[in-house]
Write a structure and sequence with these properties.
- Two copies of one chain form a homodimer.
- Chain A is an alpha/beta fold.
- The first copy, chain A, has two domains: 117 residues, Rossmann fold; 97 residues, 2-Layer Sandwich (Alpha-Beta Plaits).
- Chain A contains nine helices and eleven strands.
- The longest helix of chain A is centred in the middle third of the chain and has 14 residues.
- Chains A and B meet through helix 1, helix 6, strand 8, strand 9 and strand 10 of A and helix 1, helix 6, strand 8, strand 9 and strand 10 of B.
- The structure holds adenosine-5'-triphosphate (ATP) (2 copies).
- The site of one adenosine-5'-triphosphate has 22 residues of chain A, from helix 1 and strand 2.
Chain lengths: 227, 227
């Protein structure tokens, strides 16, 4: 697999290194020679060049790439022109980082396959975890279903799964329970270990402090999350 | 809940708006009046101020906050000084965005409760999804267990769950199956819908193109992911 990463800011340089560590052949491009010097030991090839220079891009073989990620946001013109040139050359897969909604809209019009908003996506995740500290994670499994990880609500503490009537009353399934155990080590110090019970039976008791992993339709999960 | 967001770049401004939409009382601070004008209709209060000015921070009541997020990375000195002042004032929870590993190290030394690396975290996720396109998501449930979403491997196509020996041979459980159905609409056009089968029985048949949602110990999930 050959991937080009164009633009080596925090996002681009982390992406280039991470792909290289997984064994992907990475070719890094940036107009700033200092950035190229920093990365050349961590990728297959690194070139100093202005990515809006069509001839320069052709000379390093962008046509043969399995994919290219353009990570430039402070110079929107450079980002868009680079994507347009790559699209014209028939590059199979083009992804690009966007700095704003408007930037993203233009990238999509130009034919970019996937637009990424790192700061905005992470900001939404943080807002979610600040607002609902008892919710550890909500994962979209499909347009209709999601997985929720949350601390056991008060009304379920001390009950066995069958008696909580989760399936019939709330339409959610418990797929796992996470429980913390205090463990005394040889040196006399206590530490905490976490054990997980997968696909628990209906007779399993739920304890205060357990973290439940639940699966269900989105509207049922949303109702249950704030119980 | 009262939260301050200091520094309104892409990350900070998205965070402030997102928290406000959830009903959290958000107080936004930035030294740039243009940023404050942009955000003042979307938060409870917004102040133009240099966050390293201790008296100014006290005057807006940072002590009463449930938490504060400092989102400044191009001026590392401002980020660190602001966190140090907030720590001295006894603010309950301080989170901060970091622009590099070194920046993060100093923030932790100063006593920041949580350091966030939006660009780097998203870059790793993208590298993961580029390298393993058949893997849609790997979710850490606990230090020992994770959930994997992947396309059905060749050897399982056309078999019923019991005959795949997933539990005994690989130590992984199927918690759900996602399957795409072609649907013909009234206007004669076909579209694709996705159905999900939760906690499938051992007799359920697995079809080519199904997406499996699997749960198991990390080392078992890692072995199975590249089958
Ligand atoms: N025309 C161009 N050709 C090649 N590289 C370019 C071009 N324009 C900008 N770059 C490079 O792209 C990189 C990233 O730029 P930019 O500052 O826009 O990214 P960013 O999105 O702010 O970064 P971060 O990921 O750190 O948030 C810089 O290293 C810059 O030198
Ligand atoms: N001392 C300060 N007091 C208040 N605000 C400040 C101070 N220093 C910087 N800021 C503000 O912090 C904001 C974010 O700054 P910065 O550019 O460092 O963030 P960033 O991490 O690059 O942003 P992004 O989230 O867009 O990647 C800017 O709006 C800037 O005006």
């Amino acid at each position: 697999m050959i991937f080009f990463v164009i633009g080596l800011g925090r996002f681009g340089s982390t992406l280039a290194r991470s792909l290289h560590e997984k064994g992907v052949e990475v070719i890094a491009i940036d107009k700033d020679s200092a950035r190229i010097e920093e990365i050349e030991d961590f990728v297959s090839k690194a070139y100093v060049m202005d990515a809006t220079n069509e001839k320069a891009l052709s000379s390093v073989g962008v046509k043969d790439a399995d994919g290219i990620v353009v990570c430039i946001t402070s110079d929107i013109e450079a980002s868009i022109m680079t994507c347009m040139i790559l699209k014209d050359k028939g590059v199979r897969k083009i992804m690009a980082k966007a700095g704003s909604e408007l930037h993203a809209k233009i990238l999509r019009k130009v034919g970019v396959d996937r637009v990424i908003f790192p700061e905005q996506e992470m900001a939404h995740r943080l807002a979610e975890s600040i607002y609902s500290p008892h919710i550890f994670e909500v994962i979209d499994l499909s347009p209709e279903y999601s997985i929720l990880e949350r601390i056991t609500p008060k009304f379920m503490e001390g009950k066995v799964i069958r008696d909580t009537k989760l399936r019939t009353k709330y339409g959610v399934y418990i797929i796992a329970i996470k429980r913390k155990f205090p463990i005394v080590k040889e040196d006399g110090k206590t530490s905490v270990e976490e054990k997980i019970f997968i696909a628990p039976s209906a007779d399993e008791e739920i304890l205060k402090g357990d973290v439940l992993v639940l699966l269900g339709k989105k509207e049922n999960i949303d109702k249950f999350r704030d119980q």
